[in-house]
Design brief:
The structure is a single chain. By secondary structure, the protein is of the alpha+beta class. The chain has six helices and six strands. The strands form three sheets. The protein has a two-stranded antiparallel sheet. α4 packs across α6.
Length: 148
């Protein structure tokens, strides 16, 4: 029994960090700088400053942001692989985002769909972001386990 418990503990980080990324336009966050979001800016990255992490590409506005990402990539990776946090929370569905629509909550980047008159960040905030986040966390685990 002890060995099974130990095995589960050893595998848990691999399961928790197994990712599925939204790489529309070839990059996470559609090529927007994931570090810049933490300065409350949605800025499209520059092809001069790119890196690959966990099998996907990221773009940055500056060498400084690229280096910050390289030092601590998990800090900057968007929640739910960069899919719309609201859609993951509400229905457990992967929906594309508008990279200009985001929120930093509890030190984590959340991206949202915003098109055709529907801004899911507004809905997220109006419909209890904390409850949606909890649902999204559970739904995301189910989604990534399906992909394994």
């Amino acid at each position: 029994m002890k060995n099974k418990f130990l095995l589960i503990l050893l595998l848990l980080p691999a399961i928790a960090f197994s990712q599925d990324y939204n790489t529309k336009k070839g990059f996470v966050a559609e090529g927007y700088d994931v570090v810049a979001y933490f300065n409350n800016k949605a800025e499209s990255g520059n092809k001069e400053f790119t890196t690959e992490y966990d099998g996907v590409k990221f773009k940055f506005i500056s060498k400084e942001n690229l280096e910050l990402f390289k030092k601590s990539p998990k800090k900057y990776i968007p929640a739910y692989g960069g899919y719309c946090a609201y859609a993951i929370g509400l229905k457990g569905e992967k929906v594309s985002i508008n990279p200009k629509t985001f929120e930093i909550r509890d030190g984590k980047l959340y991206l949202f769909y915003n098109s055709w008159g529907t801004n899911t960040l507004d809905l997220w905030l109006k419909e209890d972001a904390e409850a949606l986040k909890k649902a999204a966390d559970k739904n995301w685990l189910k989604l990534i386990q399906k992909n394994d």
